[in-house]
Amino acid sequence: xxxxxxxxxxxxxxxxxxxxxxxxxxxxxxxxxxxxxxxxxxxxxxxxxxxxxxxxxxxxxxxxxxxxxxxxxxxxxxxxxxxxxxxxxxxxxxxxxxxxxxxxxxxxxxxxxxxxxxxxxxxxxxxxxxxxxxxxxxxxxxxxxxxxxxxxxxxxxxxxxxxxxxxxxxxxxxxxxxxxxxxxxxxxxxxxxxxxxxxxxxxxxxxxxxxxxxxxxxxxxxxxxxxxxxxxxxxxxxxxxxxxxxxxxxxxxxxxxxxxxxxxxxxxxxxxxxxxxxxxxxxxxxxxxxxxxxxxxxxxxxxxxxxxxxxxxxxxxxxxxxxxxxxxxxxxxxxxxxxxxxxxxxxxxxxxxxxxxxxxxxxxxxxxxxxxx
Length: 373
Known about the structure:
Layout: H1 2-29, H2 34-43, H3 50-63, H4 77-106, E1 110-111, E2 114-115, H5 117-128, H6 134-161, H7 167-197, H8 206-233, H9 238-265, H10 268-271, H11 277-281, H12 286-294, H13 297-306, H14 314-326, H15 329-349, H16 355-370
Antiparallel strand pairs: 1-2
């Protein structure tokens, strides 16, 4: 995994350089804009970098090089690698923007073990003794920070595209990026829609609607889209992109299902989020849909009553966790995860991509589906 480790280091350096380049503009306007840079740095420091890795291996799978970091002529594949690093970094900034907006919509207090952006802005208001509502200021400021990060991700992505000599690759990658941006925004809407409107739909539809949220909010933009973007940067054929999508979508579903389990049962010391956070946020996930179908009527009514209560006590969280686990919903989700991973591995094992990429993607499939954070 040395190649992946090298990629992660380059992405971090690229993000740091990008923020360094933007900081003078903010500072020249006024020192009160410095928190926008500081909060961005904190949010973009570390992380699992899955989107960057899938972008890189999407490119590597079709590039024809044994390693993206082999000595290469400066005017050929080396410039392509630089473009891929820029694109991978742009995906990480895009992800940070989505996290900021997601935390506002979910009223999440923490992110990666730190206060969420809107809570940090809220603290600035409180500590400064400013007028008005700290809560309103925090949400408004974080919304703008998320928008700023979205714009910055686009700037960095365009910088990478300009490094590619092939116009067709540039256009294909841009189309993939635009499609991803639209799909994840629609997925976010579907997520908040399900939290509020689920009673309006027949019981048999709830599972399929929860699955739709997984696909568009997370599965596509977490794995499928980064793979397709990287492959487009490398001039992939239709067959290659199709094969990578066939791998990426089921793996993305497995990735989000694991995330849903962690949102209910994850260790706060590992996830950086409070225990049972998804229960307090009222997430209508596949896990919840399966649990509702398995629980006795009285237990289902209690789950519906408590789910989404931001003031759930630790005892209530523990009770809901036990109900969801004991009814067999967790075991069923684990089976669905394993099934989707098998589909992904089968797809990549016969894909028209490099052998090295097949091996690395298979390893990543294991990592993202078994992670604890």
